Structure formats: C-alpha cells, structure tokens
C-alpha cells in the first residue's frame, strides 16, 4: 500500500491547503490567495493525503485557453519533499489536462529543476500566437496576466521562471 494517495480536493481541505502553502507565501515562494478564491478553485485542486489522513501536498490545474493550462499552487509539506508527492500530484494534473483536451501546460516557479525533470522548459519570451494573445489580453484572470507578462500585474514580483510543457 502506498504511503499516500492523490485525490480531488474537497471544500473541507481548504483550511489545510492554506496551512500547507502559508509558509511558502511567507517566504515569497508562492503567491498568497484569498480563502474565498481557494474555495472557488476547489474543483481545480488535487491533494495528497498520507495514510493517517494528513494533507501533505496540493496542486491545481487552471484552464487558460482551449489548449493551455497552468499548474498552480503546487506545494508539498517539508517532511514529504523528495518522496514522490510533488511528482504524483503533477502526474495527476497532467492526466486531468489531457482529459480536458489541453496539450500545453505552463507554470511560474522557482522549482526549475523539479519541473525541468518533468519535461517543462524555460519559456523565455515565448507566449502564444498573436490571435490568442489578443483574446487572452482581455481576461481579468491574474494567472493569464502573469503568463502574458502584462503590465497590469507587477512584473514577475517573485522573480520566478515561466516554464512550459507540451503534453
């Protein structure tokens, strides 16, 4: 039997997701999210739960465009880092992306080595085709704005790397 399972998040997981990501927000590794936004994003989240019921990891898949999704808020509890939790959550998010018809995923991350080992590459200045860009620029979603590097968001306030994976 595995040490943990990855499953869809439930609303009752939100307080535990907040507890999991808060130390990373304080260290400016992840952007903080309002609790109301996390509740609204529950269907996007997958969580890892240990055999004893502890929430040990979480990550979300947010649809950006017909073929493009964003891996968001991927976090693992410190004692579980290096034990396959992040990899298992990412595999589940990639499977979810494929099931939705997405074939490209991006992330904004400091964990360049982890995502690189999992097939993501530094995007540099590449974003999307001009027609898609014109549509996306009208979005009010901050993840879209960060992906496109729009002036209406602080320019890469965390100093992280934009990475892309073609599924």
List keywords for this structure.
167 residues; alpha+beta; Aminopeptidase; seven-stranded mixed β-sheet; 6 helices; 33% helix
Structure description:
This protein is of the alpha+beta class. It has one domain (4-166): 3-Layer(aba) Sandwich (Aminopeptidase). The chain has helices spanning 14-26, 35-40, 85-100, 112-117, 130-136, 142-148; strands spanning 4-8, 45-50, 55-65, 68-76, 104-109, 121-122, 161-166. The chain has a seven-stranded mixed sheet with strand order 1-2-3-4-5-7-6. The chain is globular and about 40 Å long.
Strand order of the largest sheet: 1-2-3-4-5-7-6
Strand tally: 7
From the helix content, strand content and strand pairing, which structural class follows? alpha+beta
Note the main sheet. 7 strands, mixed
Write down the overall mean pLDDT. Answer: 85
Assembly context of the chains: single chain
* Residue share in helix: 25-40%
State the domain count.
1
């Amino acid at each position: 039997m595995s040490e943990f399972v990855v499953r869809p998040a439930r609303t009752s997981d939100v307080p535990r997701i907040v507890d999991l990501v808060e130390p990373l927000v304080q260290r400016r590794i992840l952007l903080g999210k309002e609790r109301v936004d996390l509740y609204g994003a529950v269907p996007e989240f997958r969580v890892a739960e240990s055999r004893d019921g502890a929430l040990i990891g979480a990550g979300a898949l947010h649809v950006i465009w017909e073929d493009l999704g964003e891996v968001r808020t991927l976090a693992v509890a410190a004692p579980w880092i290096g034990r396959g939790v992040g990899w298992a959550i990412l595999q589940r998010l990639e499977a979810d992306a494929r099931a939705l018809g997405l074939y490209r995923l991006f992330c904004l991350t400091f964990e360049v080595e982890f995502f690189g080992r999992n097939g993501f590459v530094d995007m540099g200045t590449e974003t999307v085709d001009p027609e898609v860009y014109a549509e996306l620029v009208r979005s009010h979603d901050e993840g879209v704005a960060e992906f496109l590097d729009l002036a209406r968001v602080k320019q890469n306030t965390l100093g992280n790397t934009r990475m892309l994976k073609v599924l």
